[in-house]
Each structure stands twice: as C-alpha cells, then as structure tokens.
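Tip: read the tokens left to right.
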C-alpha cells in the first residue's frame, strides 16, 4: 500500500522542530472545514508545529455548468493542489479521497505521497429534501426530480427507481442545497461525510442511505493528506493522524476501480469494512455514463489475505459482464 503510517527510519515518537506548514486547500465551505480540522489535529499532535491555510482555486471549482466527467473527472479537484505541492507553494494538501484519481491522473504525482489517511467519517450517501418529506428513495413520488452530479449515484437510483427523473447538479454543497430550496429538484443526493464535516447535516430533512440501497464511491468519507515525498519532516507530522484501518479499506476499494480500468465515465461503487480480522468488500457497477443496469458482487477474506477478496470480487463482476458495461459504445 502507498499510505505509510510513518516515515521509514523515523521512530514512532519524535519531537519535530518548530515549523509552519502551509496547507493547500480548496476554497469551498467543505474543503475549508475539513482542512481546518486537519490543521488543528496536526498542531495538537505536533507541539511547536503551526499550520497555515493557503486557499487554491481548482479547475473543478471553476467549472460549474457542465458535468465533471466531460472535462477530466474529479481529478480536477486535485490538479492545482498537486501542482502547488510540486512547485513548493504549499507543504501539504488535504483531498477528499474519492476525488483522488485511481487511473488517468492529471498530474505526475510520482514525487508526491499520501502521507496519512485519518479515521473515516460516515461513508454513506444521504438523501436531502426541502421539507423532510419522502427523504428515502422508495418514498419519493413517481416523476420526482433528483439532482446528482455522480454517474455512480445516477445508475443506482435509476436501477431501483426508473420512474424518477435524475438530472445533473454541480456546485459546492451550499450551492446544491440552494438549488434544492429554489425548487429545481425534489431531492438531491450528497455525501453524508461532507454534510457532517461542514456542519450542515439536518436530520429533519436529510437521511443517510443504507449501503444495501446505494453503495458509496471508493474512498468516500476518507481524507488523503498529501505532501512531497522528500519532505521527511512534513511526512512525520502528518503520520500522527494516520489510521491504518481506514487506509486499508480505501486501498481495497480503489483496487476495484484499478482492476476494472475505471475512468471518469465509469459508475463504480466499492465499500470495504473490517471486523474480527476479516475484510468484507462489496462493489456495484453501472453502465458507462450512468445508465442501468447495475451489477453487484461481494467477497470476504482474512485481512492478511485481503487481496484475495479483490480478486474474487473482480472475477465475479467480470463474469457478469462488468467490462462490457463500462466499455465505450
């Protein structure tokens, strides 16, 4: 795995020299909320280290009126942050792990490393309605308008409720919630983790979706703390936030995308959990560009043989025609 809990050769407990670390973050409400949390944690776990937030506008933030998959996918949310790292403008960056490309990266990140993966927030998706009524997929009336910018969500919604009208919605969390309030949609689907981290989760009109109904994106709810590979001091500071269990689950989920050669047009869901020394891995795949049908598979293995679960799951998906579903017409 590429998520080391500490710098090789550095003891588990070290005293880092006083230093200010520049943290590159997107300017959205969510990005600044989660970057602020990371900054406070880094400072708390590394006495003498201070973190300064540096706001960087990304291509994903600038492109608001078209689907991301038409312009390079979620890697547009990480591109400028990685370029700033390589240029030395910032010392580390915080990414939503689901936005970090698995295949077809937009930046050569060979000189960068994911130095830490903090404990995961809620990995589920969440239904959001304007008034709290029908905050569940099966409760929405026929013909209800559902907003989502995700091909993965679109395919799973239509596979279960083909009578719904699923339309694209772009923008940050607050923008999507405003579009819902303005009546453009009857419901929108957002990541529960984002709503919670931004302090916007309202149980009266928002409801997490059971993964049995909608599987989340690989890495959803997890953060990736990225820095330059040769910056041992920064890597050591970030290592204090690392959660090996979260990193292991996210890596297995990303292995599913890697195994299917997924790209920004691929509606692939994957979710791994650990319990009693075993890993359970589930995945769902829709047709390219977000249409049904959706095929699903599951596998389990001892954690020390987790790769076997990935191999078994991928073989199951391929037997069901996953590659044909994901292939361009």
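Filled-in amino acids:
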């Amino acid at each position: 795995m590429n998520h080391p809990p500490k710098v090789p050769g550095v003891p588990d407990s070290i005293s880092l020299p006083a230093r200010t670390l520049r943290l590159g973050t997107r300017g959205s409400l969510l990005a600044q909320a989660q970057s602020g949390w990371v900054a406070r944690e880094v400072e708390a776990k590394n006495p003498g280290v201070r973190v300064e937030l540096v706001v960087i506008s990304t291509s994903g933030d600038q492109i608001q009126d078209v689907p991301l998959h038409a312009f390079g996918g979620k890697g547009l949310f990480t591109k400028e942050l990685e370029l700033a790292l390589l240029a030395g403008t910032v010392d580390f960056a915080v990414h939503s792990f689901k936005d970090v490309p698995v295949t077809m990266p937009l930046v050569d990140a060979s000189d960068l490393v994911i130095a830490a993966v903090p404990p995961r927030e809620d990995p589920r998706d969440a239904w959001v309605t304007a008034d709290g009524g029908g905050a569940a997929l099966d409760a929405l009336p026929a013909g209800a308008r559902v907003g989502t910018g995700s091909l993965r969500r679109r395919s799973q919604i239509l596979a279960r409720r083909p009578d719904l009208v699923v339309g694209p919605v772009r923008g940050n969390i607050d923008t999507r919630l405003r579009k819902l309030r303005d009546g453009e949609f009857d419901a929108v689907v957002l990541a529960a983790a984002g709503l919670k981290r931004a302090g916007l989760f309202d149980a009266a009109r928002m409801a997490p979706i059971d993964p049995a109904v909608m599987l989340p994106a690989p890495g959803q709810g997890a953060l990736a703390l990225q820095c330059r590979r040769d910056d041992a001091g920064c890597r050591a500071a970030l290592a204090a936030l690392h959660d090996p269990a979260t990193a292991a689950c996210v890596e297995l989920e990303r292995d599913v995308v890697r195994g299917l050669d997924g790209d920004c047009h691929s509606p692939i869901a994957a979710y791994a959990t650990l319990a009693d020394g075993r890993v359970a891995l589930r995945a769902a795949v829709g047709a390219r560009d977000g249409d049904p049908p959706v095929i699903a598979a599951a596998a389990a293995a001892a954690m020390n043989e987790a790769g076997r679960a990935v191999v078994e799951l991928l073989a199951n998906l391929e037997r069901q025609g996953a590659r044909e579903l994901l292939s361009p017409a």
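Residues 119 and 192 are 15 Å apart (CA to CA). The radius of gyration is 20 Å.
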